[in-house]
Structure prediction request, 476 residues.
Amino acid sequence: MTVVIAGAGPTGITLACELARRGIACRVLDQAPRLFEGSRGKGISSRTQEVFSDLGVLDRMLADGMPFPKFRLYAGHDVVSEQTVSELLGVQPLRRSPELPYPETLLLPQWRTDEILYERLRELGGQVEFGTEVTGFDQDEDGVTVHTSAGPIRASHLIGCDGGRSRLRKALGVGFAGETLETERTIIGDARVDGLEGVFCHMFTKAGDIGERFSLWSMPGGEYYQFVATMPTERTPELTLDAMNRLLRERSGRDDLHLHGLRWISLYRVNVRMVDRYRVGRVLLAGDAAHVHSGASGQGMNTSVQDAYNLGWKLAAVLCGAPEELLDTYETERMPVAANVLGVSTRLHRLNFQRPTEPVAVHQLDVSYRGGPLAVDDRRTPGRLRAGDRAPDGLLDDGTRLFDVFRGTHFTLLAFGRRPDADFGSGVRVHRAAKSEGYDVDGDALVLVRPDGYVGVICDRVETVREYLERVSGTA
Prediction:
């Protein structure tokens, strides 16, 4: 049976690519007539770039994107300040190294990210069924009957990637605890701008009051800008180009800037909520369907893509014979990540572009599953790298790049010291290494890297690796 994915945003298409490259049949359904046309989720974090590199789409994104611009604050025509993202968050900028190939956040409008992901899905033999709405479902021990506007579909699993207003989440009846900031609304859209120079996130105010601003983000290519303005709910204007130009003049105190060519506009209220369960039987939730929050930290799309990346290899493994319990680790690993993102984004939202008293990292390289059900660290003296951590990039003895070794759907066993005299099957590729930066191991250590680039096992016994592979794939 096929897997049905509801929603063709970055979450749903990433998941579809993960399943397709493993030979798992899936159908992606979206009620919209086409891909999303706005720039909404525009920042791609360091860790998400690593995910997209593994999926074979990062080169296209780097070609069309640009480094994250500085924030420039105006008081009328005067420039008050310019800050990088790192300066604004109070952190030291990351530096490129063999262990960290993508230190900078990439700016790319979401519509282009969606296009590139969809191009990749089609290369893998998949497609999106646009104009097809999922209206409900019934599940039993053997599968799920998915009710759609085009008729019923029988599936092994149904994955809700249908956004913050998820119909599937509501149908599941899971809790969605949190808060809604009812006193404010945010308008976001894309338009051309006359009278604007320089590549920045331009934050216009009359007198440097950051609370009353109209932001215009430079986007790759320079044709369109993303505009953002937050205001009290009772003062929300009409969603028209004329109204946006009036708001820009009011907040900037300038009449030399003019918006035109409106491409997309939306009004939203900030919700800070997450589900209490990611899985009910054969129905699972991912991305905004499972967690929604302020866009202040720029982590929404990144967290959602990494949900799909975590779920994809596990769902495929279960469909190929791995224990069903493997799917439970999706919730166990990703729920704490979502909770942390909600906390960070809410904190930054309330700071309203004021520097935090403590540094805030948003690169997501520090996301770890240490202590979780799929992290086995069998060393007497644990080192800096622990099971559950992101597996760093680096070079093997022959100059081979580790991320090239990891790329694909397999597990990777790094054998430091002697090569183990064992066959772990076609799903595991073994590479011998004398030493690699970022891997502080001694002696005849074995490091098993999961298909999603996280360390599953650090040990010195072949039997430990075999036992782990039995748990996650059903074979060893």
